[in-house]
């Protein structure tokens, strides 16, 4: 395996640590080299300036001019310049004539000999500096003129050996190296701490593993047929797949948006933000019925957000509603079969008792009542499915001791499917039956009306009714007045509102003439959305 593959197999945290260590080392070394170069340059510059200052001071001294006028300048200047050299920590102070003859020198043997080195513009009255190797070795020196009455009469050269300059430079470089080492230690410590945190965040995975996980993760998320929504601890959307975007009609820039700002139903938002796991609950999202499961997401014992899965249940719910109608009709037929058996036994017993007249009268009366109910329902509703539903609801109400009255007629409309009418009537009547569970007076009035532009269905009961606050929330998914809400509770009236909206209508909540709640649904066949 190549070194490149071995490097990619290392954890990302270790790769970052090595990169940071190399970067810190490189930066510190470069910094030390640059600082050392700058310190060397400054040391030579300071030495040259110090030599110029000392030379100018000596050249301006009255002692020098007075000695030069005398017959033996060396006798006066040699001890004096040596004292100046020691006091100023320089390596030589040479006073010379314009012909380069030395009057003074650190080495007395050099007195009287010619000065070695360039003079530059000093004989013309200028200051001259250079680095030159003379009798004492390499040195940084300055040559300045001695003027008497405005005329150059001699020269002064002051020098500092390079070895002495470098001795001080080594002290400076040592301090720079110590500071660089401290910076390197701090940098390496920071890199190590950052590497530890990165190792913890990436769970010790290498770059190829992370890339593979991301590729698989993205492929799975966008290929599954369930909608998936991931929220962080603040309820902001951090991940959403294609199916969730479709089911919830989410915009492309949804990431980072609080779930409360997505325009979802309050019940669905509450389920997504819930702190406990919920499985397979039904919610409305626009015109869709969704099966929603949510669970808090935890890592290392701490909450990191929530995971919400969504499945489209619209068509299945519609079919289930029709099956529910069939089930209720079956129960109604079973109940009627039971009642018919009782009546038949009564008729047979009356005949056996020889009371045939009473038997005929009893049978005829029951048939008339049953036929009258059937005629009234069929006359009110032309659609056989809706008529069957109302007959079943009437039988169910009778079993539960509730009087169900049907008034008015429902005109036929091709723009309204029987399934929608079953949804509206079935859920409204069921809701009214539940509302009468604990009331002494039990009655439900169903009023049907309509014309060419609209169909109206009103269901009122004699229950306790709804106050203003409850009336404003009763159409929300998940809202219920029942004592034990659970999966599917609070969905019926929300489905009614959904059907009304899909046909350009609405649902009005008020108080019925019986004293309980009244729901009036208006459907407009020509305004199907």
Can you walk through the features of this model?
By secondary structure, the protein is α+β, with helices and mostly antiparallel strands. The protein has three domains: 154 residues, Beta-Lactamase; 86 residues, PAS domain (Beta-Lactamase, 2-Layer Sandwich), CATH 3.30.450; 212 residues, 2-Layer Sandwich (Heat Shock Protein 90), CATH 3.30.565.10. Strands 6-5-9-8-7 form a five-stranded antiparallel β-sheet, sandwiched between helices. Strand 8 and strand 9 form a beta hairpin.
Fold topology:
Layout: H1 3-9, H2 12-59, H3 62-69, H4 73-88, E1 92-96, E2 128-134, E3 137-148, E4 151-161, H5 162-202, H6 207-223, E5 227-231, E6 237-240, H7 242-248, H8 266-273, E7 278-285, E8 288-299, E9 302-312, H9 314-352, H10 356-380, H11 384-399, E10 403-408, H12 418-435, E11 443-450, E12 455-461, H13 468-473, H14 492-502, E13 506-511, E14 517-523
Parallel strand pairs: 10-11
Antiparallel strand pairs: 1-4, 2-3, 3-4, 5-6, 5-9, 7-8, 8-9, 11-12, 12-14, 13-14
Catalytic activity: ATP + protein L-histidine = ADP + protein N-phospho-L-histidine
Transmembrane segments: 16-37, 173-194
Keywords: ATP-binding, Cell membrane, Kinase, Membrane, Nucleotide-binding, Phosphoprotein, Transferase, Transmembrane, Transmembrane helix, Two-component regulatory system
């Amino acid at each position: 395996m190549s070194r490149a593959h071995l490097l990619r197999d290392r954890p990302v945290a270790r790769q970052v640590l090595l990169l940071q260590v190399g970067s810190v080392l490189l930066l510190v070394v470069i910094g030390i080299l640059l600082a050392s170069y700058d310190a060397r340059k400054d040391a030579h510059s300071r030495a040259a300036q110090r030599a110029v200052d000392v030379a100018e001071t000596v050249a301006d001294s009255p002692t020098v001019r007075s000695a030069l006028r005398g017959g033996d300048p060396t006798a006066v200047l040699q001890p004096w310049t040596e004292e100046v050299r020691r006091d100023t920590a320089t390596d030589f102070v040479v006073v010379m004539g314009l012909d380069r003859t030395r009057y003074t020198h650190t080495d007395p043997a050099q007195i009287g000999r010619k000065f070695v080195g360039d003079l530059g513009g000093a004989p013309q009255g200028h200051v001259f500096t250079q680095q030159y190797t003379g009798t004492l070795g390499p040195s940084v020196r300055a040559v300045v003129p001695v003027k008497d009455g405005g005329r150059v009469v001699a020269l002064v050269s002051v020098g500092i050996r390079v070895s002495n300059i470098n001795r001080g430079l080594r002290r400076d470089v040592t301090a720079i190296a110590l500071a660089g080492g401290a910076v390197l230690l701090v940098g390496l410590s920071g890199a190590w701490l950052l590497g530890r945190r990165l190792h913890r965040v990436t769970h010790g995975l290498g770059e190829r593993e992370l890339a593979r996980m991301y590729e698989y993760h993205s492929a799975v998320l966008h290929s599954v047929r369930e909608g998936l929504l991931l929220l962080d601890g603040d309820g902001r959307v951090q991940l959403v797949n294609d199916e969730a975007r479709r089911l919830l009609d989410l915009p492309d820039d949804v990431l980072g948006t609080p779930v409360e700002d997505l325009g979802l139903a309050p019940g669905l938002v509450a389920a997504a933000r819930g702190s406990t796991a919920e499985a397979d609950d039904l919610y409305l999202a626009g015109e869709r019925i969704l099966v929603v499961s949510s669970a808090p997401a935890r890592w290392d014992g701490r909450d990191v957000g929530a995971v919400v899965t969504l499945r489209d249940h619209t068509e299945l719910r519609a079919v289930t509603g029709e099956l529910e109608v069939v089930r209720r009709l079956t129960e109604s037929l079973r109940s009627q079969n039971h009642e018919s058996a009782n009546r038949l036994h009564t008729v047979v017993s009356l005949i056996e008792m020889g009371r045939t007249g009473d038997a005929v009268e009893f049978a005829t009366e029951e048939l008339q009542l049953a036929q009258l109910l059937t005629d009234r329902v069929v006359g009110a509703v032309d659609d056989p499915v809706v008529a069957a539903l109302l007959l079943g609801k009437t039988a169910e109400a009778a079993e539960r001791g509730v009087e169900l009255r049907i008034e008015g007629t429902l005109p036929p409309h091709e723009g309204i499917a029987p399934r929608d009418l079953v949804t509206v009537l079935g859920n409204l009547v069921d809701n009214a039956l539940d509302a009468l569970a604990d009331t002494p007076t039990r009655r439900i009035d169903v009023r049907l009306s309509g014309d060419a532009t609209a169909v109206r269905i009103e269901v009122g009961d004699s229950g306790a009714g709804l106050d203003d606050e409850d009336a404003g929330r009763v159409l929300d998914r998940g809202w219920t007045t029942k004592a034990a809400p659970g999966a599917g509770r609070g969905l019926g009236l929300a489905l009614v509102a959904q059907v009304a909206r899909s046909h350009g209508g609405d649902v009005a909540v008020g108080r019925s003439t019986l004293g309980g709640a009244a729901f009036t649904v208006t459907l407009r066949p020509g305004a199907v959305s």
